[in-house]
Design a protein that fits this description.
The complex is a heterodimer.
Chain A lengths: L1 H21 L12 E4 L8 H13 L4 E3 L3 H10 L1 H12 L13 H6 L4 E8 L2 E8 L4 E8 L9 H17 L8 E6 L2 E6 L6 E2 L6 E7 L5 E8 L2 E8 L5 E3 L7 E7 L5 E8 L2 E8 L4 E5 L8 E6 L5 E6 L6 E6 L6 E2 L11 E6 L5 E8 L2 E8 L4 E4 L6 E6 L5 E6 L6 E6 L5 E3 L7 E5 L5 H4 L3
Parallel strand pairs in A: 1-2, 1-3
Antiparallel strand pairs in A: 3-4, 4-5, 6-7, 6-29, 7-8, 9-10, 10-11, 11-12, 13-14, 14-15, 15-16, 17-18, 18-19, 19-20, 21-22, 22-23, 23-24, 25-26, 26-27, 27-28
Helix pairs in contact in A: 2-6
Chain B lengths: L1 H19 L16 H50 L2 E2 L9 H16 L4 E7 L8 H19 L7 E7 L10 H7 L1 E8 L8
Parallel strand pairs in B: 2-3
Antiparallel strand pairs in B: 1-4, 2-4
The chains are: A alpha+beta, B alpha+beta.
């Protein structure tokens, strides 16, 4: 009875303080997302791990992340003195896979609005992330990993993978913490982690690079090098940086490469005297160039495969202005994809099919500036996602609910990330001139290690 | 007075003739006291040669000047042809059709290409920053093709014209307003070969 009373008192006492600490986002729909509290712990050298994981979980936009400000945590520890001691002893005896149910003051955290509590502790050289289900009053899952040293260049990705495992344990779907985004700046391709850390140059020549595109296994990316009006396509390994030219290109202006989901085929646009048309080439055997569109009086470009590999969405100027079309992957059955009002709707470009197959993001000219739109593939309806400034070149996160895009809303063109479910928007980096982003698939340990 | 001036004119004319036609012997010296005939003859010979030399040098100078003048005129004509050929044409927003006010410029290029059969050119299509980055590569290609088709439809062999698209990657002017954008939506024309001694059409 006493703990319950205490909890009830705490609700009354701390509501305002918690509100201040909790509402970190911009446009939150309150109440729809589970609350998650990262348990504060001192020492053990895991502060940066906790900070990275907490930020990853926040950026996942799937939780109401409850931060416990310093003052409150002191007060909380004093009010829950006996319980903290209990937690401490179980930490010491934490041998099995996160088996220390009932150790937390669950009613307290429930009172704070938490549905989950994540506890990150060290056991020797092993880092243990324990996810508590507050309502059930038990441990949902314990994850034990051996993290590389913080000075190791793989450290952050390893922590991101830990965050993704915690997220999966909580909501059942994998996270996007261990992902990267490729983008172009000053004619070079760069990579950056989804949390804005570890920006790194990846293109290796002085020619102007454009249009990076990931392979679906995350092991390669394709991009275009542009010089003197010609465009060459290249495939580059993420680890090692080995680069090979795509054969049969080089005589024309080849651009906007896109991998098929099985990694066998590269679709791309080729500009010739007949205009711009879509082609595919088998990149496994470097053969079998195939032309998919024949538009003597229209341009066809910017292909993007559906995740089942059966269809390709693309841009065509056949209605006069560029609009979003779709066809079978062999070039047959070409038809309008994103509806538009003839003579009213502006040019639509840069389509990218979502990894779950349900949506195609693109940008459209609205009153002389560009805005990001999303097409619902099943209903073939579009909705406008952005309205502030110029917003273009959207690219899907592997969770199909976040998009990175280029926006000048802060006064200069840089990369932003929007969560479609909450509408929350955050800048990815604070640099002018970034463009043409491409979000990676989920990167496994093998694909995320940097040489 | 009249006769005097006539005489003077005749005298001047004679002198000019004498100067110009250096080959004629000068009038015989008046008979005088006996002198060293050989020395006198040598003196006369030297003065004739000096006059000849001066006349030749003057003729050479005039010839060189005339040649230089005509070369300069030729060069001026070549420069003019060159700049007419290089004159850019411009496009409306997101359009690749040739504007009527640019047809005169293209007609001049047709005439130059016809007058200089060895001449080969490259057309580069450019876009402003407003369109989509990747789509602009296709649009720039269209713009270069438009100008090429115009030239070909006016009798120029297609093999003499290469085309390139630059998309929005090489703006002529930096800035973010319509006056800048309208200058950047353009075709550029450059000579690949056959550009020496361009003939005026």
């Amino acid at each position: 009875m006493t703990p319950l009373l205490l909890a009830a008192l705490l609700v009354v006492q701390d509501t305002s303080a918690i509100d201040r600490g909790v509402r970190i986002g911009i446009i939150y729909r309150p109440g729809v997302r589970p609350g998650l509290v990262m348990l504060p712990r001192k020492g053990q050298g895991l502060d940066s791990v906790r900070a990275i994981v907490a930020r990853d979980l926040d950026y996942s936009d799937r939780f109401e992340v409850i931060t416990l400000p310093g003052g409150d945590s002191i007060r909380l520890s004093s009010t829950t003195g006996p319980k903290r001691t209990g937690t401490g002893t179980t930490t010491g005896s934490r041998g099995g896979a996160g088996a220390q149910g009932g150790a937390l003051n669950y009613p307290l955290y429930q009172a704070l609005g938490a549905d989950f509590a994540l506890d990150i502790t060290a056991a020797g050289d092993t880092t243990v992330a324990t996810l508590h289900d507050i309502a059930a009053g038990s441990v949902r899952r314990g994850v034990r990993v051996q993290l590389p040293a913080a000075s190791n260049r793989d450290f952050r990705q390893a922590v991101h993978r830990l965050a993704d495992q915690a997220l999966q344990a909580a909501v059942g779907t994998p996270g996007i913490a261990a992902t990267r985004i490729l983008f172009v700046k000053d004619g070079k391709v760069y990579q950056i982690d989804q949390d804005g850390a570890d920006q790194k140059l990846v293109s290796s020549t002085d020619r102007q690079a454009m249009s990076p595109a990931w392979s679906h296994d995350g092991q390669h990316f394709a991009y275009m090098e542009f010089q003197a009006g010609k465009g060459w396509l290249y495939l580059q390994e993420m680890t090692g940086g080995k680069r090979i030219a795509v054969s049969t290109t080089g005589s024309a202006l080849d651009f906007t490469p896109a991998f098929s989901p099985d990694g066998q085929t590269l679709a791309f646009s080729r500009a010739t005297e007949d205009g711009t048309d879509l082609y595919t080439i088998n990149v496994k055997n470097n053969c079998c160039l195939r032309r998919l569109t024949v538009g003597r009086f229209s341009d066809n470009l910017s292909p993007t495969f559906s995740p089942d590999g059966q269809r390709i969405a693309f841009v065509s100027t056949r209605p006069g202005l560029p609009q979003i079309y779709v066809m079978a992957a062999d070039g047959t059955d070409q038809q309008l994809f994103a509806p538009f009002d003839y003579g009213v709707t502006g040019a639509s470009n840069a389509p990218e099919w979502s990894p779950d197959g349900q949506s195609v993001a693109f940008h459209r000219d609205v009153a002389g500036t560009l805005q990001v739109f999303v097409l619902d593939v099943r209903t073939r309806t579009v909705r406008q996602l952005t309205s502030v400034g110029r917003n273009e070149d959207p690219t899907w996160a592997p969770d199909s609910r976040h998009l990175a895009f280029v926006s000048d809303r802060s006064g200069y063109r840089q990369l932003w990330i929007i969560d479609l479910d909450t509408g929350r928007i955050r800048p990815l980096l604070q640099q002018s001139g970034a463009r043409l982003p491409a979000w990676s698939p989920r990167l496994s340990e093998a694909t995320s290690s940097t040489p | 007075m009249k006769s005097v001036s006539l005489l003077l004119a005749l005298g001047v004319g004679a002198a000019i003739i004498a100067g110009a036609c250096g080959g004629n012997p000068p009038p015989a010296p008046p008979p005088g006291p006996v002198v060293d005939t050989a020395a006198e003859n040598a003196r006369i010979r030297d003065s004739i040669e000096a006059a000849n030399r001066a006349a030749q040098e003057e003729a050479e100078r005039v010839r060189r000047q005339r040649e230089a003048d005509s070369l300069a005129a030729l060069a001026r004509a070549g420069e003019e042809v060159r700049s007419t050929l290089a004159a850019m044409i411009h496009f409306d927003l997101d359009k690749s059709n040739i504007r009527s006010d640019d047809m005169g410029s293209l007609d001049q290029k047709v005439a130059i290409l016809q007058a200089n059969p060895e001449l080969r050119i490259r057309i580069g299509g450019h876009c402003d920053e407003r369109g989509s980055d990747e789509y602009n590569l296709a649009l720039g290609n269209r713009r270069a093709q438009s100008a090429k088709q115009y030239l070909v439809s006016h009798g120029i062999d297609a093999s003499r014209i290469e085309t390139q698209s630059w998309g929005e990657e090489k703006p002529l002017v930096d800035g973010h307003d319509e006056s800048v954008w309208s200058q950047n939506r353009r075709d550029e024309f450059e000579i690949i070969s056959g550009g020496d001694n361009l003939r005026h059409p």
